[in-house]
Description:
alpha+beta; Beta Polymerase, domain 2; seven-stranded mixed beta sheet; 7 strands
Amino acid sequence: xxIPESQLETWSHQGSVKxxxxxxxxxxxxxxxxxxxxxxxxxxIFLQGSxxxxxxxxxxxxxxxxxxxNQTYYANTTSxxxxxxxxxxxxxxxxxxxxxxxxxxxxxxxxxxFGVDVKPGKRAIFIKGSGNRRDADVLVCAQHRRYRDAxxxxxxxxxxxxxxxxxxxxxIVNFPKQHSENCTTRHQNTNSRFKRMVRVYKNVRNRMIxxxxxANGVAPSYFLEGMLWNIPADKFVQSYEDSxxxxxxxxxNADKTKLACANDLYWLxxxxxNVCWSTANYDAYLAxxxxxxxxxxx
Length: 298
C-alpha cells in the first residue's frame, strides 16, 4: 500500500525557519565579533546543510554554520601538467597562520562566549541550544582549490571549496557553495518541486529509522539531496505521490556509478571515500524504501 498523498504533502513542509534564522544570527555575530583573536584575519561565515539549502524538516532543524579561513588555502594540484605544477611551486609561499591556528582560536572564542554549551566533535563544534537558540554545528575550515587540468598553475582555473581535518586526522574536502547553487537551480527548473521532494525523502528516511527499516547514518541528508539532484526535471510533477514514484523508479533503474553529488565535483556512490555514499549503504537504503513504501499501513 502506497504512502498517501496527504502524508507526503505534510512531509514536504519546511521545518523551523524563524528560530533557525535567529540562531544563525546569534552565532554569526559572535563569530564576527571584532574582539575575537582571529578578527584581523581574512575569513567568511556562511550557512551549509539543510537549513542553508531550505530543505530542513521539523526533526532535523539544526543550524550548520561554516567559518572559513580565506587568507590561507590548501590545494589539490594533481591535475596540473608538469609545467603548470612548476609555475605553481614557484609562486607558492607557506602561510604563517594555519588552519590549526585558526581552529584553536575559534574554539577558544566560542567556549568563552557559550561556555559549557560548546562541545568540539569529530568534524564540527557543537553548540547546544538554549532558550530560542537551536542546536548548531560550527565547521571551522580553510579555503581549498582544486586545480583543473587546463590551469597554468598561476591562474583562477580551479574549483574553490573548503578543507578541514577531522579529529582522527582524516582530510575532508568539499564544495558546499556549488552544492547549494546547483540544488537551487534544480529547484527552479522543477517548478519549485525539487526541495519539497527532498524534504519528503528526508521525512521518509526518518520514519524508516524509527520503524527499524534502516539504521541511523545509512542515508545522510547530504546524499539524499545529491541522489535527487541527478533526476531529470520532468520526473517532479504536481502530485507528491506521482513525484515520489517517478523519482524513486528513476533512481532504481539508474547506473549508480554515474550519479554525481549535487556539487557535480564528486561521484555520489563510491567506496573508501569520506565524501561519497558507500555502495552497501546506498543499496540498503533503496531496498528499505521499496519495502517501506509497499508495507505502508500494513
